[in-house]
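User: Sequence in, structure out. Go.
Assistant: Echoing your sequence, followed by the structure tokens.
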Amino acid sequence: MDNKHEILQLLRSVASGDTSPEQALLEFKQSPFEDLGYAKVDFHRNIRQGAAEVLYGAGKTPEQIIGIASAMGERGCRNILITRMEADAARQVADALPLEYHPSPRLGIAFPGPRTSLGNIVVATGGTSDMPVAEEAALTAEAMGNQVTRLYDVGVAGLHRLLSRLDVLMSARCVVAVAGMEGALASVVGGLVDCPVIAVPTSVGYGASFGGLSALLSMLNSCASGTSVVNIDNGFGAGYLASMINQMEGLEES
């Protein structure tokens, strides 16, 4: 079973008498995962969590990525996220299966297909240098079926740039604030909006920024309520969490 819709179809088929309970049980037994030797591909991730398994590309060979993504594609999975995949590996993967690759955030989407566009997530950055992390967040959220609005280079060094887009910020269901240096953007945004803010510290900064640690600590110590923080440069984690928040609000509205 690839998703909740297919499971519901199977259960309705059992209820109508078109499928026997024994046949349905066999379907479920065959579904949970496939053992490829180097990976156990979790086909029930979508059922449990609402999104298919995501491949972490760093440390995997192109052959392993191809094997895992192909197994998922054969089960009908679409828009399979592959994070932290280098360009050389992406070229080899693209030769073997359909792939949409974005070099700046090093993110691939295997077997790209139609996507819904629910709600509105805003992804904002303090500076242009934060864009690779922000794009990882934005593309993750889009692949998971969300509408994303990008507000790039609106940091506190020129606060009027952010304030000129208050209409966009205040209509968001969730804001992802991506910033390095002292990480002040998240606190500013958190003081302006009535929705959850996900702060993403980046490793952008001079000298004693300690690879993003200074931004991380600033965001953790934010006085703005309703702000959560993910790890340094973790755009994927922020995009995934933003999607969950956005889609939960969408269910409540419907």
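User: And one key feature?
Assistant: Residues 30-110 form one domain.
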